[in-house]
Every structure is written in C-alpha cells, then in structure tokens.
Amino acid sequence: LAARVPLLDDTEDGSSGSGLMHHKFLVIDQTSVITGSANFTSSGVHGDAGQPSSRGNVNHLLRFNSPGLASVFRKEFTQMWGDGHGGQQDSRFGLQKESEGSQTVRVGNTQVEVLFSPHPKRNQGHGLNLLAKQLNKARQRVDMALFVFSAQQLTNVLREQIKQGVEIRLVADPGFASRPFSEVLDLLGVTLPDHTCKVEAGNQPLDQPVQGIGTPRLARGDKLHHKFAVIDNKTVITGSFNWSPAAAHTNDETLLVIHSPKIAAHFTREMNRMWSSAELGITPHLQRKLERQKIRCGDGVERKQ
Asked: How does strand 103-107 pair with strand 110-117?
C-alpha cells in the first residue's frame, strides 16, 4: 500500500470470492512469466521470521522468456483484473471466468501446455482430467512431490499404472499426508476415519500398499509445498494446482505440462534430494493415528455423498 500499487481481491466481481485465488504468477513487460508453487512470502521462499530452524517451505519457481506464453497468462490476469477499481465490477474469478481448455505454446523448442482453473465438473477439460491423461501416458516411472493429494480419480489411474509395471515414487507433505481425505493413505493401503468416524464416500485404498511413498523430514512449521510430477524423465507437471477437486472446480489455479527432458532432469534432481532423507511407508506418527482411530471408530462409517 505504501508503494501505491493498486490491489484488488476475488470479491471485486461482487461475489463472496472463489474458493481460493491460488495463482502464483508474474508477467513482466509482456515477455516473461515467473510461476511455480511458491507463494511470494518469506516463509514461501526463505523461512519463517524469528525461527532460525526454518528453511522455508519446499517450493520451486520457473521463469519463461516467451511473449507467447506471457500473452496467455496476461489474458488470465486481464479477466481477473477487469477495470480494476473502475467501479464496473467486471472482474471475473472462479467459475465466473470464461472456461477455456488447455492451450499449447512453444517456448523455444519446448512445448508447454497451460490450463487455468476452475471448471464445472461437467466440463471434461478440467484439471483433474488433464492430470489423468498425462499420468496415463507413463510407461516407466512417475515421480510426484505433492502438498495436497485428495483426488480419488488420480489414485485410480495410478492403481492401473502400477498394475502395468510403472514405478511410482511420491513424497508428500507430512501434515496433509495423514489427513483422513488424503489419497496418500489410499496408496499406503489404509483408511483413516475422520474425527466424526466418517470415511469418504467411494474411498478405495489399494489392496497392496505402494512401496514408493515417503514423507520428508522438515523443520518445524515448514511445508512440502511442491505440486509437481515427472513422467518418464521427459514431462513435468507443475503450477499452483494441488491434486484436489477444489483446485479443479473451485479455485483460481495454474496447471502447466512441460514437455522437456532437460527441465525434467532438474525436477528429478529435486525429487532425489527429498527422497534421500524421506521416511518411507507408514510412519510411527501415522501408525499412532491409525491405532487411535481404530479404537474410537472401528472401520468407520462411509459418509453419504
């Protein structure tokens, strides 16, 4: 405010706002785009003020020098900005935005697909379907580093890919991994009833737990905030888009699919760094939660849809 930078939020359209205005992008001089998983905060990049042990949330940023890609992002920004504070209430957020499908831009020799959410569930071009399409293309390996993973649809895709011999590695944020709605639990082959002893409708844990599931050891208060996957060492999925129904159908989000073995190698290096110190399988913390809820709830009761 002191710098007199005009500011508005997602209630500018006269609504109560979208689920979350969750984008994290900058467009500079209509030629460059900076985006990724990092919020532009101290804790998102450096660490929490006053907490020397904090290293900041585990994140990434990408910079693209591409007028074509900048144009795509600028169009999304323009929809949300409207006339700014001009009084027309023509800003558009959430499902009030024009629902476009994925757009493909060539950045040098690299093909980049961009999808901005949200979309109604009836729109088959929504983000979870794009993720499912990319996961279905895997033939050898899928590496994932995810803050929130709560989409049963994607667990079902991974289940089939595992049957076909695709190797799966996942590092997940420890705080979200052990929540009752977490699909990390499904991949570990367990079910955790919530505080009311309810289990999500349609919950389908795997019969055989996946061996390649881990949670990193982080400083107190820090989060694994990535939202990326690497497919067959050549395709990277990234952006602000958590793997959740809210990201697809409620929030303003960015989802990128980057077809580049070179960029995939950078993300694989980050994956390997986290994997080297991750706790694999059912951690002692999760085991205690499972045992407590088993005593309280038994197998739980399925929540009505």
From this structure: antiparallel
The C-alpha atoms of residue 96 and residue 12 are separated, in whole angstroms, by 12
Tens of pLDDT, residues 92-133: 999 999 878 999 999 999 999 999 999 999 999 999 999 999
DSSP-derived 3-state class of residue 117:
strand
CA distance 18 to 16: 7
Q: pTM of the entire structure?
A: 0.94
Residue 37: how many other CB atoms lie within 10 Å: 26
> Strand 167-172 relative to strand 198-199: parallel, antiparallel, unpaired?
unpaired
The token duo for 210 is 């996946």
pLDDT tens track for 214-273: 999 888 888 999 999 999 999 999 999 999 999 999 999 999 999 999 999 999 999 999
Q: Which of 76, 71, 119, 77 is nearest to 94 (CA)?
A: 119
CA distance 274 to 60: 13
Helix/strand/coil for 265: helix
Alpha helices (H) in 224-260, listed in sequence order: 245-249
Q: How many CB atoms lie within 10 A of CB 148?
A: 23
Residue with tokens 């085991």: 287
Q: Which helix (H) or strand (E) holds 256?
A: strand 253-259
Between CA 259 and CA 272 the distance in angstroms is: 20
Tell me how far apart the alpha carbons of residues 98 and 214 are, in angstroms, rounded to a whole number.
Answer: 38
